[in-house]
Amino acid sequence: MSGFAWDPCEKCEKMMQPYLDRVLTEEERLEAEEHLAGCSYCRKRYRFEEEFRQFVRLAVSEPMPPGLKAKLAALRTPL
Amino acid sequence: MGETTPESSPRQLATEARDRVRFEEEALELSDQVYAVARRLTGSREEAEDLVQEAYARAFRAWRSFQPGTNLRAWLFRILTNLNIDRGRKIQRSPDTQPLEENDYFLYNRLEESSSGGDGTPDERKVVERLSQNEAVTALADLPHDFRDVVLLVDLADFTYSDAAQILDIPIGTVMSRLHRGRRMLKRSLAETAVEDGA
């Protein structure tokens, strides 16, 4: 990748996080999608990022220990 | 806070009891999500359980200060994160002064470079499969707390930037910068271990 600010892949890379967080403006989103449609280099990296986020979320999720819900319910104000 | 006065009519009391029960039930429905974040804010399951119980005890006591129709989930998480700070999590030096010059594609690029024999680019899913679950947990635990809080709220609990800003009582721009930086730090440490393990 060249270092020029207008390098389309570089721009696409900058848009990746806000794109996946769905905070781009409509215009920016279309710009990103237009570039992604024709650029497999960026497309792979966007897909990887989505997979990566999903991976982290699953990797760090731990189910609530059994019994905790009952302990929390016991903290309710008695009627 | 509008305590019930002795003059309250039976009808008022009944309404209040009904509102309270509904509040408590809605709060309890969110307990899995609260626990999931609490678990990563703390170092152990026991600590997480204590923190969640403390948060619910406080929420149930303070239920009148919750405004019906506003975001109960954000309200609960605000209690949780405040308690976590109160319980004396270690105050850290202002975190991470080393530069993070990498851009957002670098983890994939690193994994791609180190993948077997250069026979074309690997499938994205296979690349992710090379990452280890334990490493992800460790990398997250090693993030400076201010950064970890934001990453947990947005990436694990699915809060918007603006909810995360309200929960943590910081400007939205700070949420964005901590989030982006926190994610990069996470990726950098995963890239390091994955490349070491898999090269």
Structural description of this entry:
Chain A is an all-alpha fold. Chain A has one domain: Orthogonal Bundle (Arc Repressor Mutant, subunit A). Helix content of chain A is 67%, strand content 0%. Chain A contains 4 helices and no strands. In chain A, helix 1 runs parallel beside helix 3 and helix 2 packs across helix 3. Chain A is elongated. Chain B is an all-alpha fold and 199 residues long. Chain B has 2 domains: 77 residues, RNA polymerase sigma factor, region 2, helix turn helix motif (Rna Polymerase Sigma Factor, Chain: A, Orthogonal Bundle); 93 residues, Orthogonal Bundle (Arc Repressor Mutant, subunit A). In chain B, helix 7 crosses helix 10. The longest helix of chain B has 27 residues. Chain B is elongated, with a radius of gyration of 21 Å. Chains A and B meet through helix 1, helix 3 and helix 4 of A and helix 1, helix 2, helix 3, helix 5 and helix 6 of B.
Q: Name the average pLDDT of chain B.
A: 86
- Spans of chain A of at least 5 consecutive residues whose pLDDT stays below 50 are none
Strand content of chain A: under 5%
Query: In CATH, what is the homologous superfamily of the largest domain in chain B?
Result: Winged helix-like DNA-binding domain superfamily/Winged helix DNA-binding domain
Protein structure class of chain B: mainly alpha
Mean pLDDT of chain A: 90
Q: Which CATH architecture of the largest domain in chain B is right?
A: Orthogonal Bundle
Shape of chain A: elongated
Separation of termini of chain A? Answer: 66 Å
Unreliable spans of chain B are none
Work out the radius of gyration of chain A: 21 Å
Number of strands of chain B: 0
If helices are DSSP runs of H or I spanning 4 or more residues, what is the number of helices of chain A?
4
Kindly report the CATH topology of the largest domain in chain B: Arc Repressor Mutant, subunit A
How many separate domains of chain B?
2
